[in-house]
């Protein structure tokens, strides 16, 4: 079974996503989003080439996979698969991914 690991920034992102959704009144939706993100990360660990390449985000190759309105940013060559960030698609992905993974 393929595995994945979260960076501290990705762990923080997931906590912020949950908090944001719960504060707007839906713990059930927060749980559903969390499960969908976890399922996607497991699938990416099994098939890391699925995401879209984003060589502009770092000096190394990163990929992005969308889940709902969120983007999973990960390193496809790592074992376990390393999830760098989990960001809302409306955020500045280039700036935020650089804080966790400088060019």
Description:
With 103 residues, the chain is of the alpha+beta class. The protein has a single domain, classed as YaeB-like fold (2-Layer Sandwich), CATH 3.30.2310. The chain has three helices and five strands. The chain has a five-stranded mixed beta sheet, with helices on both faces. A hairpin with a 2-residue loop joins β3 and β4. α1 runs antiparallel to α2. The longest helix is centred in the middle third of the chain and has 20 residues. The protein is globular and about 40 Å long.
Q: Strand pairing plus helix content: what structural class?
A: alpha+beta
Q: Mind telling me which CATH architecture this is?
A: 2-Layer Sandwich
Please give the largest β-sheet. Answer: 5 strands, mixed
Q: How would you sum up the global shape?
A: globular
Number of helices: 3
Number of strands: 5
Order of helices and strands: EHHEEEEH
- Oligomeric state of shown chains: single chain
What gap, in angstroms, lies between the N and C termini? 31 Å
What's the gist of this structure?
By secondary structure, the chain is an alpha+beta fold.
Write the layout of secondary structure elements.
Blueprint lengths: L3 E3 L1 H16 L3 H20 L5 E2 L9 E5 L2 E6 L5 E8 L4 H8 L3
Parallel strand pairs: 1-5
Antiparallel strand pairs: 2-3, 3-4, 4-5
Helix pairs in contact: 1-2
List keywords for this structure.
single chain, 103 residues, 5-stranded mixed sheet, 23% strand
């Amino acid at each position: 079974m393929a595995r994945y690991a979260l960076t501290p920034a990705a762990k923080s992102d997931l906590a912020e996503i949950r908090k944001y959704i719960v504060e707007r009144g839906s713990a059930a939706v927060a749980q559903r989003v969390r499960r969908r993100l976890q399922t996607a990360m497991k699938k990416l660990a099994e098939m890391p080439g699925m995401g879209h390449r984003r060589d502009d985000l770092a000096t190394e190759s990163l990929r992005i996979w969308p889940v709902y309105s969120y983007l999973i940013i990960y390193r496809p060559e790592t074992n376990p698969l390393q999830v760098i960030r989990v960001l809302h698609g409306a955020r500045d992905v280039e700036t935020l991914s650089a804080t966790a993974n400088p060019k």
